[in-house]
Structures are given as C-alpha cells and as structure tokens.
Amino acid sequence: MQAVIDTLQTIGIFLLYLAARFAVLLVVLAVLTVVFVAGLAVVRLAGRARHHAMGLARVDGLVWRAGVYFAPGHAWLQTRDGGTLRVGLDDLAQHVLARITEVILPEPGQAIRAGEPAAVIRCGKRRAMIPAPVAGRVVAVNRRVVGNPARLHTDPYGGGWLYAVQPEDSAYARLPYGEDSRPWFSREAIRLSQFFEHQLGMAAADGGELVAPAPSLLTESQWAEMTESFLQASR
Fold first, then answer.
1. E strands of the chain, at which residues?
2. Residue 185 maps to which CATH number?
3. What is the pLDDT of residues 104-144, one digit of tens each?
4. Domain ranges, residue 74
5. Model pTM above 0.85
C-alpha cells in the first residue's frame, strides 16, 4: 500500500513539475507575443510617421507624394541644395515596371536632353527606355539602386531615386507640383487601370485599389504600347 502511495506521490510531483514548466512556457510565449506586437506597432507607427513626413498618400490605389514635381513620363523631381534635382520614378511606374531586374543609369558628368533616353530599366528579357524629364548635366547617380534594383519598388520616393541632375534652365517649374499634381496623378492611375482592363479583358480596379495584373502577361506589342504611353509620354 505504501508503495502505491509513493508511486502516486511521485506521479503527482511529476505532473506538478510539468504543469509548472508549461505555465512558464505560456508566460514566456505571452511575453514574446507582447514584445512582437509592440515592436510591430512601433514599426508601423514609424512607417506611418515617415510616410507622413514624406507627404505620401494613396490616390486611386497608387502612392502619390507631395512636394515633388511630376513629369509626364512618370518621373518625379525633387529640388536639392545647390539647385540640383533628384530624379526618380513614381508609383505608377512601379506598376508598369514590375519585377525590375536591372537598372542602367547615366554616368556623372553626362549631359542629358529632355525627352531623350537617360536610363534603362530591365524587367527580365524586356527593357524600357526612361527619358530624361529635364535637360542638364548628371551630377550623381544612385549606385545602391544599381546594386539592388528592388529598391525602386520598396522605396520609390526615397532610397529608390535614380540620379541627380543640374538643370540647364527652370523649365521643370512648369510641371505639376504638390497638391496641383494630385488630379493629374489620379487621372493617370485611372488610365492605367483602364489600359489593363482593355488589354487583358479584366477589371483592373476594385474598391478604389489598383489590381494591376503582372505586365508579364502582356504581349510584346502590348508591353511596347504600355511603356510608350506611360513612360515616354510628352503631354
């Protein structure tokens, strides 16, 4: 009888030990969950703060930025110290140029002419010529985006800039700027939605969010039409 009691006590102690270990594990998991959720919240708040500081907003499913000029070919220009302009590609261009695999930029010191090719973006076997939005001389290029083309997608209005140019005149000041550019950007976002809908026979917009199919679904002629219409536009 004593042996049975001792066995039950041993089992009880073992079960209590397991319960205690399980309770500790639950506490650790709860703490880690709280830390993870708090960290995620901090990251989101930091992201929102950065977006707010940069003047980013969603316009018809695409990300638009205040405080920059927008060229017809969907390049943005930001004035910098010394009168230079930093040039990048807006969010609509990111939807046109999905899955960027290579970025070829002009060399520092190179003279560029408005409307003439200044950069090349490759998306797999396809490539798009990116015209210069202004005339001038290149003073800097973003080597990081050359080494990591994905930066064009992940941070198009920030770290994904392409090059900086010293403009030869102030013609860029006539481009849509700030809040005045929002209606134009909205029309362009709708036009891109309609392009995909027409070319691929599917609804490209749903609830105000752009649902752009992968450009890889387009034929070569459709790709050429898309890049010419949106990236080389002169209007």
1. 56-59, 62-65, 69-70, 75-79, 85-89, 102-104, 111-112, 117-123, 126-131, 136-141, 163-167, 205-206, 209-210
2. 2.40.50.100
3. 999 999 999 999 999 999 999 999 999 999 999 999 999 99
4. 66-231
5. no
